[in-house]
Amino acid sequence: MKAIVTVVGKDRTGIVAGVSSKIAELGLNIDDISQTILNEYFTMMAVVSSDEKQDFTSLRSQLEAFGQELNVKINIQSAAIFDAMHNL
Q1: How far is CA 26 from CA 7, 10, 66, 85, in A?
Q2: What percent of the chain has pLDDT over 90?
Q3: 44-80: pLDDT as tens digits
Q4: Is 3 exposed, middle or buried, given 0-12, 13-18 or 19+ CB atoms closer than 10 A?
Q5: How confident is the model at residue 82 (pLDDT cuts 50, 70, 90)?
Q6: Domain boundaries along the sequence of the chain
Q7: What sections of the sequence does the record tag as coiled-coil (predicted)?
Q8: Which CATH number applies to 2-87: 3.30.70.260, 3.90.550.10, 3.30.1360.130, 3.40.50.720?
């Protein structure tokens, strides 16, 4: 399973550490990651994977809830869907 995780919010210390820890806690591996600050806003995109089948509804719910704790918006979507959307 491969997925794309995006994170957007007002920049502050600890966002990368928090999100990467949560990703590991969920049993996902970070295959690639990019992050930048645009003005005062933090943006991150990560390609994550797992050898095991994952429940996207549960992953999405847990990441969204964690994002609220960090005051950022976290989204996850299947890489297959992401690829299909961009091949239309």
Answers
A1: 16, 24, 12, 25
A2: 82
A3: 999 999 998 889 899 999 999 999 999 999 999 988 8
A4: buried
A5: low
A6: 2-87
A7: none
A8: 3.30.70.260
